[in-house]
Design brief:
The complex is a heterodimer of chains A (653) and B (171).
Chain A lengths: L1 H29 L2 H30 L6 H6 L6 H6 L5 H22 L8 H20 L27 H15 L1 H13 L4 H32 L10 H26 L3 H24 L13 H23 L16 H33 L6 H25 L7 H24 L5 H32 L3 H11 L1 H25 L2 E8 L3 E4 L2 E13 L2 E12 L2 E6 L2 E5 L5 E4 L1 E4 L3 E10 L5 E10 L1 H19 L10
Antiparallel strand pairs in A: 1-10, 2-3, 3-4, 4-5, 4-6, 6-7, 8-9, 9-10
Helix pairs in contact in A: 1-2, 1-6, 2-5, 2-6, 5-6, 5-7, 6-8, 7-9, 8-9, 8-11, 9-10, 9-19, 10-11, 10-13, 11-12, 13-14, 14-16, 15-16, 16-17, 16-18, 17-18, 18-19
Chain B lengths: L2 H20 L21 E4 L4 E3 L8 E6 L4 H17 L5 E6 L4 H11 L5 E3 L4 H5 L7 E5 L5 E6 L4 H11 L1
Parallel strand pairs in B: 3-4, 4-5
Antiparallel strand pairs in B: 1-2, 1-5, 3-6, 6-7
Helix pairs in contact in B: 2-5
């Protein structure tokens, strides 16, 4: 029954979505309230229908119903329940179903939240979101139909990709990333709405910023979780490798970040309107490009799914969206009211934002070029050659340092004109901090110019941020005679958008320091240890105590046990393992990571000889990795504070 | 209609879509097999110690050519597998050769001093040899039999199992 019911639910979703797309555009054009209501109901039905479809798919997966095509592809009787549930996004067709679900949920959330808000924009926007929805639901109902009935079902299946059933992060990383990816459709809808209606009021600017902030936060968390996943699973002690698919998630993040900053100029100074809209459109198009990269099989990557007929259809859709965006932008951009306020400079907040936008855009193009270059080269010369990590690192490090610098200078600059005295007063302490860190670091033996510059600029940006976070509270405390903590909390509450933004900046500072420290001061070694003997590396004594074979229904593992001591005191036992999954020739390792506040010890098992007497290990010691995940948490906290809905006061109509 | 925006948008989007479209029909996973069964491209390069090395010198014996770099983590994971294979199969006449890919000789020397090596590591200025072999990323390993034909290409780290079965097949 499930194949038919699932298909029916998807078709109902497709119908609702199509109706809503039409009525949404109609409501936008005519301003009719009934059409707007129909659009909202259509969005709810769309979400409900796809939710039912996903529920049915989960029922099929958990119930091992191999008459459903997708279950026959990724299910197996031996896979643990958690990973059975998660296998919804372990392969192509399921992940597109999840995509459709998240898009439908975003559409419903938009319909619910915007019921009485922004009547000029909301119908156009929801109409656009549902139009995008038609495409994804069409995929699920047609060429990527996961519910197809298998004529002669087998008793068991192959199980999901082993790499994806190796770690608990696989449960939350993909959905979070998808929330961010798919969520870019909502600000995209609002951007199109502004172009359709020719209205870009300050209220609209505030609304689109909020609709961008939520998916941006999800994307940020998703990317960091992805880095954490590869760190914990892939066994080489790294969290970022400029893999095409990592780049695919990073590019829309870059343009979305640029937008979050340019939107403030748009809101305050009514400048950069067309540019901000272009950034939103680019963010959305880049998510499509990213999806295309993972789903088409054109790019080779850890993440790529098998080749499928989806590729050309997806490329067609990407092309149509690109053309539509360019034409819409070209046709309507002149209808937007020109800026009324002049940009003042050169030392003003808005000029710093402009610099920030230039850097983020340059970064996006750099990553895009590096990602498609292998393909370009192959098409031209028939030989595929990778640009490799050196290209990305060489190009991105100066850009990142520039961004870090602007992150310090920007918040210190006032809007409009700046008096030289103000600049001195605001940048004095941060500059002193930066110099102190540079000199102190040099004295402490840090000789790598890159690390030194990053630490110093991070200190600069951190000091400015802390000052901006505390200054209003300090002034309030002084003026009103309030105790400082109370005054601080008051200013953070009233200015939560601003305070949250600065907390995000603090998170970025943590991450910058972590990346610089862990990549520059990383030490690694490969060693083979005989059972019972000890080898030392970077102050760690590693004793190989023995090995064991563990059997589980879906895999067997070779576990090697090591006693670890750090500078003579016991740290615990490490148990890196090699897992052998059924129907897979290659062994997949589970490294052991022992995290400390100062550094991580990372052990991955390379090989154990047949008698278990000798174990080969790859060992990495990386400082401050923990700061990376912590910084991600700080960024999440800051975005929640910043995006927290403000209660509207009744009297402020 | 703002023609500048239109032209700018077209200038970015048309080549991008055309490029992606051209990528179809090129399965990156199958691509690795294109060289299999073909004669191995010849090369003469210098080792890290400045000695010349030519693939022709190894003619008549099986050769394993490994492209790697120090910035590539999977290469380092693969290293012990190459070490043990070179230890066991080197005496049986299998030649092992490593080609450095987009990397500094000094970094490679430092790594090999720590991790050890039983084979010459060659510098590849301008990446010519890598291009001739169609290296799309590192590590990539080519197994060349006694007649000078590539019988297998492995993209990504070679597992112990694949290493042993392929070497047995070549001997």
């Amino acid at each position: 029954m499930i194949p038919e019911l699932g298909r029916a639910a998807v078709l109902i979703g497709l119908a609702a979505c199509s109706i809503g797309a039409v009525t949404g555009m109609w409501a936008g054009k005519t301003g009719r309230a009934d059409a707007w209501n129909w659009t909202r109901y259509a969005a709810f039905v769309f979400a409900g229908a796809i939710a039912v479809a996903v529920g049915l798919m989960q029922a099929a997966l958990i119930g091992h119903d191999y008459s459903v095509k997708y279950v026959a592809e990724v299910g197996s009787n031996e896979t643990p329940l958690t990973f059975t549930i998660v296998s919804l996004w372990s392969s192509l067709d399921g992940s597109i179903l999840l995509w459709a679900l998240i898009l439908a949920l975003w559409a419903a959330a938009f319909a619910w939240k915007m019921k009485d808000e922004h009547p000029e924009h909301a119908p156009w926007a929801l109409g656009t979101i549902l139009t995008i929805g038609i495409f994804f639901t069409f995929l699920v109902s047609g060429i990527a139909n996961p519910f197809e009935r298998v004529p002669n079902p087998l008793e068991n299946g192959p199980g999901p990709n082993p790499l994806l059933q190796n770690h608990i992060l696989m449960i939350i990383h993909p959905p979070t990333l998808y929330l961010g990816y798919v969520g870019m459709t909502a600000p995209f809808g609002m951007a199109c709405a502004a172009l359709f209606s020719g209205n870009m009021s300050t209220a609209w600017a505030r609304a689109i910023r909020r609709w961008m902030l939520v998916p941006w936060t999800c994307l940020t968390v998703g990317i960091i979780l992805g880095g954490w996943w590869s760190y914990e699973v892939l066994g080489w002690g790294g969290y970022w490798a400029w893999d095409p698919v990592e780049n695919a998630s990073f590019m829309p993040w870059l343009t979305a970040t640029a937008f979050i900053h340019s939107s403030m100029v748009m809101e305050r100074k009514e400048h950069l309107k067309g540019w901000s809209i272009t950034l939103v459109m680019a963010s959305f198009l880049l998510t499509l490009l990213g999806t295309f990269m993972t789903r088409s099989g054109v790019f080779n990557s850890v993440h790529s799914f098998t080749q499928s007929p989806i590729g050309p259809v997806f490329l067609g859709f990407l092309g149509v969206c690109l053309v539509a965006c360019v034409i819409l932008l070209a046709a309507r951009i002149d209808s937007l009211s020109p800026p009324t306020k002049k940009l003042e400079g050169p030392w003003s907040r808005e000029v710093a934002f402009l610099g920030n936008n230039l850097l983020f855009t340059a970064f996006t193009f750099t990553v895009l070029l590096g990602t498609v270059y292998p393909l370009l080269n192959e098409v031209m010369t028939d030989v595929q050659i990778s640009v490799g990590e050196p290209y990305f690192n060489r190009m991105s490090v100066p850009i990142c340092l520039g961004i870090l610098f602007l992150m310090g200078v920007g918040p210190a600059l006032p809007w409009g004109r700046t008096e030289p005295g103000v600049l001195m007063q605001r940048l004095g302490v941060p500059t002193a901090t930066a110099l102190a860190i540079a000199i102190g670091g040099y004295a402490a033996g840090i000789r790598e110019p890159l690390a030194l510059m990053t630490f110093s600029l991070s200190g600069f940006a951190g000091a400015v941020t802390l000052r901006e976070l505390t200054e209003p509270g300090r002034q309030r405390a002084q003026a009103l005679g309030e105790p400082l903590p109370k005054a601080l909390i008051h200013t953070w509450k009233t200015g939560h958008r601003r305070a949250g933004g600065y907390i995000v900046h603090l998170g970025v500072v943590f991450i910058a320091v972590a990346i610089a420290a862990s990549s520059v001061y990383r030490s690694e070694a490969e060693m083979t240890i005989r059972e019972g003997s000890t080898k030392s590396f970077m102050g760690y004594d590693i004793t190989y105590t023995g090995t064991e074979r563990l059997d589980e229904p879906h895999r067997w593992s070779r576990v090697a046990r090591f006693d670890i001591q750090k500078n003579g005191s016991p740290l615990g036992q490490a148990e890196p393992r090699l897992n052998h999954y059924k129907k897979m020739n290659q062994a997949i390792g589970t490294p052991t990571v022992m995290s400390g506040l100062d550094e991580d010890l990372y052990l991955s098992l390379v090989q154990v000889d047949t008698e278990g007497k000798m174990a080969s290990l790859s060992i990495v010691v990386e400082p401050l990795v923990w700061w990376l995940w912590f910084g991600g948490g700080v960024m999440l906290l800051g975005s929640i504070i910043s995006g927290w809905p403000t209660r509207r006061r009744k009297d402020a109509a | 209609m703002n023609w500048r925006v239109l032209a700018g948008g077209a200038a970015i989007s048309v080549p991008l879509v055309a490029l992606l479209a051209a990528g179809f029909g090129r399965d990156p996973k199958l691509r690795s097999n294109a060289l299999e069964g073909r004669p191995a491209p010849a090369f003469t390069l210098q080792t890290l110690d400045g000695e010349p090395f030519s693939l022709d010198e190894a003619r008549g014996a099986p050769v394993v050519v490994n492209f790697w770099s120090t910035w590539c983590q999977p290469c380092k994971i693969e290293h012990p597998v190459l070490m043990s294979a070179a230890e066991s199969y080197g005496p049986n006449g299998v030649h092992f050769v490593a080609v450095l890919y987009q990397d500094d000789a000094s970094k490679a020397r430092a790594f090999l001093n720590r991790a050890g090596s039983h084979w010459p590591t060659l510098e590849d200025p301008g990446g010519r040899t890598a291009i001739a072999y169609g290296v799309a990323g590192v590590p990539e390993t080519f197994f060349i039999d006694k007649t000078g034909t590539i019988i297998r290409k492995v993209a990504g780290p070679v597992s112990q199992e694949i290493m042993v079965t392929t070497l047995e097949q070549m001997l």
